[in-house]
Amino acid sequence: MADTLTISAPADFHVHLRQGTFAELVTKHVREGGFGLAYVMPNLVPPITTTEEALLYKAQLQAIDPVVEYMMTLYLSPELTPQEIRNAKAAGVYGVKSYPRGVTTNSEGGIENYEAYYPVFEAMQEVDMVLNLHGEVPSSSTPGSNTCVLNAEPQFLPHLRKLHAAFPRLRIVLEHATTRAAVECVKALGDTVACSITAHHLALTVDDWAGQSWHFCKPVAKYPDDREALREVIREGHPRFFLGSDSAPHPPGKKSTAAPSSPCAAGVYTSPILLPLTAHLLESFGALDKLEGFVSTHGRAFYKKPAREGEQIVLRRTKSKIQEVWAQGADSVVPFWAGKELNWEILRG
Amino acid sequence: MADTLTISAPADFHVHLRQGTFAELVTKHVREGGFGLAYVMPNLVPPITTTEEALLYKAQLQAIDPVVEYMMTLYLSPELTPQEIRNAKAAGVYGVKSYPRGVTTNSEGGIENYEAYYPVFEAMQEVDMVLNLHGEVPSSSTPGSNTCVLNAEPQFLPHLRKLHAAFPRLRIVLEHATTRAAVECVKALGDTVACSITAHHLALTVDDWAGQSWHFCKPVAKYPDDREALREVIREGHPRFFLGSDSAPHPPGKKSTAAPSSPCAAGVYTSPILLPLTAHLLESFGALDKLEGFVSTHGRAFYKKPAREGEQIVLRRTKSKIQEVWAQGADSVVPFWAGKELNWEILRG
To answer: Which residues of A touch B265 (CB under 8 A)?
Structure first.
């Protein structure tokens, strides 16, 4: 077994960098985790819905860490126009993120049906922007409906198929897939449809978040067989499946449920340990040789975002314990698997 | 709509009364919740495995509240012999509870396969004791296995069928059923097989415990369609389905997850509000007319435990807010739906 691994230009194609002092804490963790590129989610409060807001947010992130490349996105909402899509493209914004209403953190302004957005998608297809889908339907309280967090993703897939049929040249990413059904659906669609997978969904099943709020995220981790499907498609080296960490920091008090009336925040935080964690996990299921494809080349090819010259990270095989907490000023954040041991660490120059 | 409801002799056929000062707090809640009979689970630390221990525990409970009737059970374990079954029966112990290993609170000593216990079951059938089954198989970490908390109950049902086939006269209760599969299985079996249903599983689905540790229990609440099956069989008034609250108190600190490394305790606590809560829920799905059957006559008929003369509880239709916490000395416990409003309360004489 090799003692070191050199990975070209790791890129995290789905990350939450938050706002204010919390952003100052967590944005630095992109690079700490071995990544030089962050595809940035727009679900701030209020959400990023205009090019101007996206550029302002990008400048704030660059002020925190100017070395990382930030690929910016807009939040799909009724305010978004085809003209704004063209403005966004011209300004270097890469994608538009769609959240079904109410399914995850700060998604209260999410969409309910897609047809109203077809003119926007038409413009996105024309200028070659990417549509990023949070692929879950909202749970239903309608009598007779069986929709809940466990089947919310499979029930979304017909919407994905319909969108791809209507806009076959539109690049679409089904984000943070968690089910065998989603993997099979994306594989069966054309080359313009890809899929991001988080690191934590390669580790967790429903048993891990049952009674363990630190492992609770949306979409929730599903059955063991669903996790196996995610692992299989990575072992296979399928080029349309790549890492998007969905690393989602929350203040620790919001992760440990205090009150019977308030559930904990959804999200698992992996940024500061992302590359060693991903290497550790891929090795655990026999896919270490697919690491560079999964964390760099597949996503970069789909997003048409080549690596910067000479950018690479070296991992060293050594037992390293995951730090329990990262803090700065009044802010702190607890990582996934806090206190556990990984088999890899980043060799720092 | 009637303003009062008179219910004859409510009986809770599955409850956890704990030990020590915690037992002193929670045992009183049986009567506070409107119940005069408690079928007591044996999963103490260490578990109740002998007749002598069961009688001692019963005396401790009677010292706390002598008005309630306590039906005692033994914990199925390798120590249990056919002779001890006969001793237990003679001493008035009613049942034997089987826990699969490691699936819930204090089940580390649970069983792994039933054939070793056939001589014990033979004796139980002969003396007419009841076998209470925690009907879940343990989650598996074997590669290729898809067993997890979501299908642990359906995967247990072949064991139930096999036990019933081997011991057709043995009275068996499948405890706290949570799935349509379990309801259909029990309906299809003979008159010696019954099923308890908790109040909280009539309210919750998987969405309610996702990120909400206060709603986390074992078995976990399942899909909306599973909850609907529980509601349907109660609306139908099926005589082999009755209330067993599985009311399971834990110190509040063990319910709100504090540490990333330790999941919260499994259990929902309903004892002090049990009858008003059950009335509220049954009314919400059109089964209020089945309340007495569900909370009293069905279970009493199956257990051959008639009501004591004149024992009845009157419920009054009025909005009543659920107390946030019950405390005594250093102990406290937070009920299900703390702070929420019920449509019924007990009329106290």
So the answer is: 211
